[in-house]
Design a protein that fits this description.
disordered C terminus; protein biosynthesis; six-stranded mixed sheet; tRNA binding; five-stranded mixed barrel; 17 strands; 19 helices; Lys-tRNA-synth_II_C; 610 residues; ATP binding; EC 6.1.1.6; alpha+beta
């Protein structure tokens, strides 16, 4: 890379940037243009306007600083000797310039990584293990905070020795003789004031050692507790040991303005059911967060709470059912036939058994992911009406229209609204659906109704698929507060028992909340002859090209022949419930390791190069 003058072209030789050619002045100019904020003239500005003006000025100053640091890196195509000087979040400013940068230029992150590897090699040559054994008698940070928060400002317990260990999330050098660190663990934060005057190291050794400690490192600190003069709970170390080294640059939280602080205080005590505050996230890019969940959990504290909430949801559902005397059992993951939900099955082959195996997997969108969790329960001598009464009374806030808009309130106060699928569809859409839904006349009528409302239905145009599309268009959109869509037709419910008083319908309901299905339940069909007939009807749809139609499950029918009592069956998507309780709009936000498209997929490559 040539950088002899400010007008010399900068060539970044890096995969994904083959055709990139620009000048340093051009980069800085576009950074400024993309991020600058024009302030309108105001007469007698209000208090809020003044706050906004101060905030915008602070942003401009920060962006100018970042642009200068970025320009320096581009000119040298290298990191400074103190690689902490460059914040990786600066590099994401590329994205706000134009679409030619789709990711961070890797020569910077590569050099940081190489620098760290060289530092570890130097430690090894000096006879120091970069990854020492696990320390003993380490106090968890939450326990440390609880035990010593009573101390007064300036008070120090120099006769007490405490050992803590966890991750360095912030490092603030005051001088070569004084370094400040913030350790984070399980929602707790402790400041470490490393002072050369009380260290076991000489001043030169102290400065050299602490110069090599980086953000993200796991450290053990042995020292005494106290409160700084500014009133912050701290630990004053006599020794500090790096237990594990973070080899990559961590993104930084932007400096908070007074306006930011006020807005964050309203949301810092996040609890399930309350709106989230993703603007406070250090790492915001969804793709990066899902692919590097370890980094996401490390820097975004709210994400940790989300997955803690998901775990508590699963624990609560398990306790709730156990208290009702349910027995937990495990069911086959990949049976010999594609049974279960309406979804295109995944097929594999078992070489030892010489047999094909199947699994129903979901598509990938905002509310579906192949890696999903469900819970089913079955209650003998009950029916679907009993299941509809198993609910609690509470309210939650949910950003149904995106975080940029106000959260809506979802009211779970029972009884939930009940919507008859066929009757209410006819009322709301102005339809008169033929009674015999198995007839060609009904199929033609529903196809014309879909065309009338401009509803797209992928082939094959079976009656069940057409009806499902119409219901989604007309009924599901009305179900913001919890509502049961009930009494589905038999052609849509091969496993549900026929309705006791409505011919052609079944005793089935689906629970919809915020226009999305959460539960599916029905009175189980326990007649083996009728069940085989339903499977045969499904076979017709499969032969017409419907991969989601069910196959004949002979093992299931045989089990029914041994007499199944009247039974109510219920199934719920754990992920979608977690989405509701954590104010998440994307199912990937509540699955630790969601299924993702390959990063080197051709479509993605073409997008990057464009």
């Amino acid at each position: 890379m040539a950088a002899e003058s400010r007008s010399v072209n900068v060539h970044v030789q890096d995969p994904g940037f083959e055709n990139l050619k620009t000048t340093q002045e051009d980069v800085v100019a576009r950074l400024s243009a993309a991020n600058s904020t024009t302030q309108p003239e105001a007469v007698a500005p209000s208090k809020n306007a003044l706050k906004k003006e101060i905030k915008n000025k602070q942003r401009e100053q920060e962006k100018a600083k970042k642009a200068a640091a970025l320009q320096s890196c581009l000119a040298r195509k290298s990191l400074p000797e103190d690689d902490q000087e460059i914040d990786p979040t600066y590099l994401f400013l590329f994205r706000s310039v134009d679409h030619m940068f789709k990711r961070v230029p890797s020569f910077l992150s590569r050099q940081y990584f190489d620098n760290r590897i060289k530092a570890l090699e130097a430690l090894t040559k000096a006879g120091i293990s970069p990854y020492p054994p696990n320390p003993q008698a380490v106090m968890p940070l939450p326990e440390y905070v609880e035990k010593y928060s009573y101390l007064n400002s300036g008070q120090r317990l120099e006769n007490v020795t405490v050992s803590v260990a966890w991750r360095v999330m912030n490092k603030r050098p005051s001088s070569s003789k004084l370094f400040f660190y913030d350790l984070h663990d399980d929602g707790a934060k402790v400041q470490v004031m490393a002072d050369a005057r009380i260290s076991e190291l000489s001043e030169d050794e102290f400065a050299k050692f602490h110069g090599g400690v980086k953000r993200g490192d796991i450290v053990q600190v042995v020292g005494y507790p106290g409160i700084s003069k500014r009133g912050e709970l701290s630990l004053f170390p006599k020794s500090l040991t790096v237990l594990s080294h973070c080899l990559h640059m961590l993104p930084r939280q932007k400096p908070a303005t007074s306006f930011d602080t006020e807005s964050v205080k309203k949301n810092d005590a996040w609890v399930p059911g309350r709106g989230r505050n993703p603007d406070t996230y250090v790492l915001k890019d969804q793709e990066t967060r899902c692919r590097l969940r370890c980094l996401d959990l490390m820097v975004n504290m709210e994400v940790r709470h989300i997955f803690q909430t998901r775990a508590k949801v699963i624990s609560y559902v398990r306790r709730f059912l156990e208290n009702l005397n349910f027995l937990e059992v495990e069911t086959p993951m990949m049976p010999m036939i594609a049974g279960g939900a309406a979804a295109r099955p995944f097929e594999t082959y078992h070489h030892d058994l010489h047999m094909r195996l199947f699994m129903r997997i979901a598509r990938i969108d905002l509310t579906h992911n192949p890696k999903f969790t469900t819970c089913e329960c079955y209650i003998a001598h009950e029916d679907y009406t009993y299941l509809m009464d198993m609910n609690k009374c509470y309210k939650i806030g949910y950003h149904a229209n995106g975080f940029e808009n106000e959260a809506i309130e979802i009211d779970f106060t029972p009884p939930f609204r009940r919507v008859d699928m066929i009757e209410d569809l006819e009322k709301m859409a102005g339809l008169n659906i033929p009674k015999d839904l198995a007839s060609d006349e009904a199929n033609k009528y529903l196809a014309e109704a879909c065309a009338k409302f401009d509803i797209k239905c992928a082939p094959p145009l079976t009656t069940a698929r057409l009806l499902d599309k119409l219901v989604g268009h007309s009924l599901e959109e009305t179900c913001v507060n919890p509502a049961f869509i009930i009494d589905h037709p038999e052609i849509m419910s091969p496993l549900a028992k026929s309705h006791r008083s409505k011919p052609g319908k079944t005793e089935r309901f689906e629970l919809f909340i915020n226009k999305r299905e959460l539960c599916n339940a029905y009175t189980e069909l326990n007649d083996p002859v009728a069940q085989r007939r339903r499977f045969a009807d499904q076979l017709k749809d499969r032969q017409s090209g419907d991969d989601e139609a069910m196959a004949l499950d002979e093992t299931f029918c045989t089990a029914l022949e041994y007499a199944l009592p009247p039974t109510a069956g219920w199934g719920m998507g754990i992920d979608r419930l977690a989405m509701l309780l954590t104010d998440s709009q994307n199912i990937k936000d509540v699955i630790l390791f969601p299924a993702m498209r390959p990063q080197d997929e051709p479509a993605v490559k073409s997008m990057v190069s464009s």
